[in-house]
Amino acid sequence: MLIEEKIKSLGLSIPAPAKPLAAYIPAIQTGDLVFTSGQVPLQDGVILYTGQVPTELSAEDARKAAEICCLNCLAAVKGVAGSLDAIDRIIKLTVFVNSAAGFGDQPAVANGASELLEKIFGDKGKHARSAVGAAGLPKNSAVEIEMIVKLKPLN
Amino acid sequence: MLIEEKIKSLGLSIPAPAKPLAAYIPAIQTGDLVFTSGQVPLQDGVILYTGQVPTELSAEDARKAAEICCLNCLAAVKGVAGSLDAIDRIIKLTVFVNSAAGFGDQPAVANGASELLEKIFGDKGKHARSAVGAAGLPKNSAVEIEMIVKLKPLN
Amino acid sequence: MLIEEKIKSLGLSIPAPAKPLAAYIPAIQTGDLVFTSGQVPLQDGVILYTGQVPTELSAEDARKAAEICCLNCLAAVKGVAGSLDAIDRIIKLTVFVNSAAGFGDQPAVANGASELLEKIFGDKGKHARSAVGAAGLPKNSAVEIEMIVKLKPLN
């Protein structure tokens, strides 16, 4: 099954790649790697999940935020690679969670992205990952994720 | 125009690459990529901008700090590549902003670096970027930036 | 001397690579680079150093935590590369230190990892590095480190 069909079968969809803001771009390819910019839980122009975890937002809601960030990362990759079918392997996620002092369950939040990638890509979705607590994130987002993927060789 | 002349025309200059501290180095090349160490707003041996944004330092001042961090990243690349003219593309910035809880305008701070790179390098300066709030940074710096660049192929 | 013998001569050892948790893996190779997941100061199934620096844990103890994180990064690389002797160069460390607001001595903490790498690998252990204060880390760990290494070419 093609990757976007797989995503639809999960009840999800890949948004249009975010438009460039200021002097940076959503993603960039160098060699066979694509590096995305940090993506926030933006959907239809609105940040859906904001605030610090767990004082202003539950870890469970932040996990949903991580799913949206992950889809936005894939949208950024698609904008560079043309199609998600060009992805050979998800290499690395860095998941920043807007964290109140003492919060230590960043991994549960990050699993929202990691488990989604495995559902979509199977073994090719298994990646290295860091989950880190941030003191603040753009527009008070609950989560920000950046991704590195490897593309398939061109024939 | 050569890149360092372009930088001078903006009223700026590239400092001498920072000397190695402890067992790490300012930048390292692998393949055609150069990874810099995190650079702080150090100028002539002094950290020019310290403290948390916005409680101890304005976002506008932190933006100036980001410019200096960016020049220090370029100095680190120059120390490895010999010349800034060897840069083919700025690939990625990670911008850590020393943030008070609830601060969410890391992107405005990071634009100090991103917009400077576009002024210096034009389209080759457009990069992927993450802007993240840190709970603290080395020597209480207001901003810390790390950079990945791609070098031109050797003839 | 082989690298694991060198590590033993320092009174240290490389643990078994951590088992995969959730849908991510301890490290992944792409081209000649290996990216590790963020590693915490886990030893024999216990996080040895937890809490914010310096309010709950001294910088000196956090430095010891950084050493353990570093050994766990090497274990993750070994799990992918088969042997630490396959490492050509340590490229990059990102060291996140669980930091109370105002703490700025992340570099001293990170030196626990950087200096250990130089002891083990000599000049090949010299790397680029960022040291950053986190508002929280997985399981309240004091330190989290991720590593990029370059492997030797296969014959």
Plain-language structure description:
- Chain A is globular, with a radius of gyration of 15 Å.
- The first copy, chain A, has a single domain, classed as RutC-like (60s Ribosomal Protein L30, Chain: A).
- In chain A, α2 (59-81) packs across α3 (106-121).
- The longest helix of chain A is centred in the middle third of the chain and has 23 residues, at 59-81.
- The first copy, chain A, contains three helices and seven strands, in the order αββββαβαββ.
- The mean pLDDT of chain A is 95.
- In chain A, α3 (106-121) links the parallel β5 (87-98) and β6 (128-134).
- Chain A is α+β, with helices and mostly antiparallel strands and 155 residues long.
- Chain A has a five-stranded mixed beta sheet, with helices on one face.
- Chains A and B meet through β1 and β5 of A and β5, α3 and β6 of B.
Brief rundown of the structure:
Chain A is α+β, with helices and mostly antiparallel strands and 155 residues long. Chain A has three helices and seven strands, in the order αββββαβαββ.
What overall form of chain A do the CA principal axes indicate?
A: globular
- Per CATH, the superfamily of chain A is RutC-like
Question: Span from first to last CA of chain A?
Answer: 20 Å
Give the class of chain A from helix and strand content and strand pairing: alpha+beta
Order of helices and strands of chain A: HEEEEHEHEE
Largest interface chains and counts: A-C, 38 and 32 residues
The number of distinct helices of chain A, counting runs of at least 4 residues, comes to 3
